[in-house]
Amino acid sequence: MAPINKPVTTKVNGIVMETNPEVLLKKRRRAEETRLEKQQQAAKKLQKQAKQKANKQAKGKFIRAETIVATTLATEREKERIKRINKVEHSKSQGKTEHLASTADYFLKVTENPDYDENSDEADNEELIQEKIKYNGEESLLFVLRIKGPVSVKIPHKPFTVLKLLRLEELNTGVFLKLNDKTFPLLKLISPYIVCGKPSLKSIRSLIQKRSTVMHKKDNIEGEEEEEKEVILNDNNIVEDKLGEYGIVCIDDIIHEISSLSEYFSHCNFFLQPFKLSREVSGFGAISKLKKLESKKKMKGLLSGLSNSGTAPVIQVDIDAFIEKLN
């Protein structure tokens, strides 16, 4: 009898073939699975050690009194903003709107001025154009992108809960959102921590084709299900397995459902994980630092319309330009 750890020579139709026995194949597969499992455990251990080290350093870090004061004041201002928004929304729900300056919701659309001249001193020569638009209550598609937010602010509980609900806990992550009368108040709560805008079909297609990931369980060779993992969406079979019962069988169907706000928009939207976009500027060189300063200045200009008022508009930007830069 031939040893099980060596190929077996067989003769089929006069042709000599070497085949590996099933026991050997299973042994190799188990060894490969064990190797991958050990690699994952080692990576988790290193990550845990790095986190513990960072926490230890943070505990012993000296914090200036000025920093504590700035953080406290900024957080108090943010809490006051949340109270004002809650008061306005509560008054609207109760129908007690006599004391409100306006009961309408607004967007502040901010776009770049194509005729802006950096060297000009004219009064009407502004880099950004701001236009206040009344929200008419119609459903529309928005792409919401998480940004850093106000300096020194610890995010209060309510906006943090909304960010968590929208799956926007990490910076530079974005999701599609169906805008309506129910979701607009949520945008008002988290407006300092996001930028949003209406994406074009080109941007929707680009995001889904380049950045889409989903949670998926793969079957191993023995037919057993592995634990759910985040995988890149590049296989229509995954789409058909998850959304086939709704008649959605390929990536193009998902693009259509999202862009047209169809019946199964929410199923497709929550099937996709939040889009993790790149940072606009990376690196630690002198040029990178200069670009970061320019980017920070530009973002400050875009968000200059933010207000602590309870009826403040939500900032709407050219989201297609953002997606093109960060995708």
TrEMBL record:
It is found in: Nucleus, Nucleolus. Residues 142-194 form the Large ribosomal subunit protein uL30-like ferredoxin-like fold domain. Residues 31-58 are annotated as: Disordered. The keyword Protease does not apply. Keywords: Nucleus, Ribosome biogenesis, RNA-binding. Pfam families: Ribosomal_L30 (PF00327). GO terms for cellular component: cytosolic large ribosomal subunit; nucleolus. It comes from the Eukaryota. Residues 45-58 have a biased composition (Basic residues). SUPFAM superfamilies: Ribosomal protein L30p/L7e (SSF55129). One of its GO terms (biological process) is maturation of LSU-rRNA from tricistronic rRNA transcript (SSU-rRNA, 5.8S rRNA, LSU-rRNA). One of its GO terms (molecular function) is RNA binding. Belongs to the universal ribosomal protein uL30 family. Involved in the biogenesis of the 60S ribosomal subunit. May act as a specificity factor that binds precursor rRNAs and tethers the enzymes that carry out the early 5' to 3' exonucleolytic reactions that generate the mature rRNAs. This is Ribosome biogenesis protein RLP7.
